[in-house]
Amino acid sequence: MTTSEYNQCVDQHADGVYRFILKNIRDEEEARDVVQDSFEKMWKNVANIEAAKAKSYLFTTAYHTMIDKIRKNKRMSSYTEVNEDSLFHSEQYSDLKQVLNNALNLLPDKQKAVLTLRDLEGYNYDEIGEITGLSSSQVKVYIYRARVFLKQYIGSLERVL
Fold first, then answer.
1. For residues 35 and 31, what is the distance between their CA atoms, to the nearest angstrom?
2. CA separation, residue 36 to residues 15, 55, 61 (Å)
C-alpha cells in the first residue's frame, strides 16, 4: 500500500470505524483512541497490506484494539451485581432509539459487535467472521442470540410506540 492509498483509506473509512467503535463502547474519547491506535497500527504495517484489503484490515484491527481496551477496563473496574429486573424493559417509551441503545448496552461485547457490524455497517457473515476471528456459524449464532435478547427486552412494539 502506498502513502496516497493509506491517506485515501483514512478519508474513506475513518468515520465508519469511529461509528462502529463508538456504538460498542459508548465513550467518545475511548472510541477516538481506538481509531487512532488502529490507524497507527495500520501505518506501521503499511508495506504488508494490500490496498484492496485495507478496509477489512482496519476494521479487524479496530475490533481487536477495542476488545483489548474493554478487557483492560474490566480488570481495573470493580464488578457490579446485575439485577435481573434491569434486563427487561417494561416501561412505556416513545423514543425507540433510546430503548434500542439501552438494550444494545446490555448485550455481551461479542454479540453487540457482530450485531452492529451486520445491521449498522452492512457486513456479511463471512466478513464479520474475518473481522472478529469467529467462524461464520458462530457469527450467526451471536446475531441470533442478540436479536432474541432485543426482542425480549423491547417486548411488543405497542409498548415502545
1. 6
2. 12, 15, 11
Q: CA distances (Å), 67 to each of 31, 88, 129, 154, 155, in order?
A: 12, 26, 15, 27, 30
Extract the C-alpha cell encoding 112.
453487540
Please report the domains of the chain, with CATH numbers, ordered by start residue.
1-80 (1.10.1740.10), 83-161 (1.10.10.10)
User: What is the per-residue pLDDT for 139?
Assistant: 92
Q: What is the mean pLDDT of the chain?
A: 81
3-class SS at 26?
Answer: coil
**pTM for the predicted model, two decimal places:** 0.54
What is the C-alpha to C-alpha distance for residues 107 and 102, in angstroms, rounded to an integer?
9
How does residue 144 score in pLDDT terms, banded at 50, 70 and 90?
A: very high
Cβ of 96: how many Cβ atoms within 10 Å?
12
